[in-house]
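Quick one before lunch.
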Amino acid sequence: MNDRSDPILQARDVHVHYTGGVHALRGVSVHVATGETVALVGESGSGKSTLLKTFNRLVEPTQGEVRVRGEAVDAGRPEELRRSIGYIQQESSLLPHWTVGRNVGLVPRLLGWPRERVEVRTQELLALVGLEPAAYVDRYPLQLSGGQRQRVAFARALAGEAKVVLMDEPFGALDPLIRHDMQREFSQWRERLGISTLMVTHDLQVAARLADRIAVMRDGEILQVGSARELSEAPATSYVQDLLRRGEVTI
Ligand SMILES: Nc1ncnc2c1ncn2[C@@H]1O[C@H](COP(=O)(O)OP(=O)(O)OP(=O)(O)O)[C@@H](O)[C@H]1O
Ligand SMILES: [Mg+2]
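Model of the magnesium ion complex:
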């Protein structure tokens, strides 16, 4: 049962074998406490996206336990689980034949919010990500730049007021100025609403700035989890040490 002291996200000894023989996760354990932000860093193919997707059941583990708010993810229906978790995919997942407004309002509509509230929420979020609602709400994803699409995806992930958000490289395709603004907005917002986040980033500066703890992944395993300071002061392996040195983490 759910308990206040349960971590909001928890993976225990999770293995994922993809068809084709890839052993993408090899006994991963990690948790995110309520209100906490944990960053997953690691090289391409290390299993970051796979781990994220086990929490909203886009990937089913072959072994191990995944819990959200203390409940096993496979205890209920996947659709309900997904509505309760904001998710920003690594590749833009906007529905191409839907306008920006309809894309952003997707989850609130599925949650049955009245039309007016969906509209207000959509406008609020577009403004938050720096897209003038009147100019963008009726456009289609193909009429946007890559960075604008990413901002719409960001808005959509937060639209349903989920308290748990999974983010896969949410700031990747943004220009530095907007990236900085969105990170600042996100930090403030996260604190105000008590949002818990598991975020994939390849940028250690972002991880150090936004995350309470950083988990370093390699070849389907988590090598170390700790604050940026803990990792840099006591790296568990030479790989972690090299990664931090290359990333020029400032703490
Ligand atoms: N659907 C799939 N079927 C088979 N293998 C997959 C599938 N998705 C991912 N993989 C493999 O699993 C491993 C981990 O992939 P994953 O996408 O989790 O890596 P990642 O750390 O997110 O990498 P990146 O930084 O490039 O996004 C890789 O070897 C990848 O090729
Ligand atoms: Mg990935």
